[in-house]
Amino acid sequence: MKHTLVMTGAGRGIGRIAAERILRADPDIHLVVVARAATSAALAADLSSAGHAVTPVPADLTSLADVRTAARHIGELLDTDRLPPLRGFVGNAGIQYTDNLTAGAEGYEATFTVNVLANHLLVRLLQDRFAAPARIVITVSDTHFGDLRHNMGMVPGPRWQKPRTLATPGAFADPTTAAAGRAAYSTSKLAALYLVHEYARRLPAGLDIVSYNPGFVPGTGLARHADPVSRFAMRYLMPLLTITPLAVGRTTAGRRLADLALGRIAATTGSYVDRDREARSSGESYDPDRERELWTAAEELCGL
After folding, report:
1. I need a labelling partner for 62 at 20 to 30 A (CA). Which of 102, 104, 185, 274 fits?
2. Percent of the chain with pLDDT over 90
3. Which residues pair with 138 in a beta bridge?
4. Domains, the chain, ranges and CATH?
5. Distant-in-sequence contacts of 217-221, Cβ < 8 A, 24+ apart
6. What's this model's pTM, rounded to 2 decimal places?
7. Parallel/antiparallel/unpaired status of strands 53-58 and 3-8
């Protein structure tokens, strides 16, 4: 039966590989790609070149107004049967900055906006339109563990603060530094896990949500805002680690993301899927008080 899957972060890296695999693996899927206006149409045209059904919806995820408009447009397409029933969402878009001072359109810190609030707003505005059974997948990161084993010393661990503080530029020490930008990234991924846990308590039966940790995947676009030396290392040197257990290749990580979205990887709602199997996330990531507090703040920040 024809059905729709909405995806962010399908333009590059593991998201592009996942999008292509999803379309090849399930000819009944109509893929909606949410991407910047400058690239969304070309991305959809490229993905649909083999006869697949792909619809572009433009949105800058650093703008909650853009996200709201995108969700409204998708809702209209679903309500008027121009899209088949909605049975999937993949929130794969992610960003990391070289400081903690970059702001989105509404003035909120951009890392927190893209990695946390944009996903929340899209899912919440589309929530009533999902047709069971459906699965929501949110891409997270094992940097939220904050230890050497999981981040190889490259990313500071999360530093949890009140959600409204995290949404404010300059929330971390030395906010002009790359270390502050990376701390904002790992903390945003911890926040994403908190929301997945809270969603699992709130979503109706038949609508599941899981988080996906691809592992360390060098060679993606995540470091595109980094300094030239870091970009060179991530693009040309770090990929050599994929021959070791320390890193995962883009193709493998993208395939696993697609398989999770398609239900080919078993996972219970609210669970953390580490690469290709359900696992425990960090001890800090299980905190019902923080989860409820973040939910309330995200609702307010998104104007819901």
Report:
1. 274
2. 85
3. 91, 211
4. 3-301 (3.40.50.720)
5. 217/13, 217/14, 217/247, 217/248, 217/249, 217/250, 217/253, 218/242, 218/247, 219/13, 219/250, 220/12, 220/13, 220/14, 220/250, 221/12, 221/13
6. 0.91
7. unpaired
